[in-house]
Amino acid sequence: MDFNGSDTITGPRTEDVLPSTATAAVKVVIVGGFGVGKTTMVGSVSEIRPLTTEETMTQASIGVDDNSRIEGKTATTVAMDFGRISISEQLILYLFGTPGQERFWFLWNGLFEGALGAVVLVDTRRLEVSFDVIGRLEERGVPFVVAVNTFPDAPHHPMEALRHALDLPDEVPMVNCDARQRASSRDVLMTLMHYLHTLAAQRA
Ligand SMILES: Nc1nc2c(ncn2[C@@H]2O[C@H](COP(=O)(O)OP(=O)(O)OP(=O)(O)O)[C@@H](O)[C@H]2O)c(=O)[nH]1
Ligand SMILES: [Mg+2]
């Protein structure tokens, strides 16, 4: 440990301290298949330095994980991502990114506890990895929005065709996004908040 350098304990950084105006906190889960950009989204939008649990993918994952269409991907989430964003002076979102690989899906139970809603990230080059994810959310009754992460070489499909392919009800909001962009990721979360608000108003 370097006592003169960056490891010196100096207390929380200003961005780590919750604003005193915060009155409500909501837990949101970011889900999706392997390599769709969940860790990227939590990282781009979080105000605090995100906590990630990424491990380098090894030879052992070849043949187990389908990384054949995710060139350049060298790390994968093994437990969760965690971040935080203030939506307004009062409202704070806590973001939990799930692992994409099916062998870690048993962790979902803990990650979903107390979650009000979810974002499903979708890669149109590999739509099939989204089916199970959406099915699991529907089973749990967790409201969700679908965000189509626009990878440059991904084929473009009209939203309605994607809705049909994913067998989504009309009321589930769908948006395009670039998970690397803070503003875009933030827009996705705003869409989810509006949707949760609409659902709550309908129930009332
Ligand atoms: N072009 C482009 N690349 C992206 C975008 N989002 C993520 N990536 C890249 O896609 C790769 C996978 O992103 P991750 O954020 O690790 O995906 P993940 O869903 O967390 O993956 P797992 O945890 O392994 O399931 C990374 O190399 C990112 O840099 C995007 O919107 N556009
Ligand atoms: Mg990840």
TrEMBL record:
Superkingdom of the organism of origin: Bacteria
Protein keywords: GTP-binding, Hydrolase, Nucleotide-binding, Receptor
Pfam families given in the database record: ATP_bind_1
Keyword GTP-binding part of the UniProt annotation: yes
Example of a GO MF term: GTP binding
PANTHER family, A to Z: ATP/GTP-BINDING PROTEIN-RELATED, GLIDING MOTILITY PROTEIN MGLA
Recorded family membership: Belongs to the GPN-loop GTPase family.
Name of the protein this chain belongs to: Signal recognition particle receptor subunit beta
Species, as recorded: Streptomyces candidus
Species lineage: Bacteria, Bacillati, Actinomycetota, Actinomycetes, Kitasatosporales
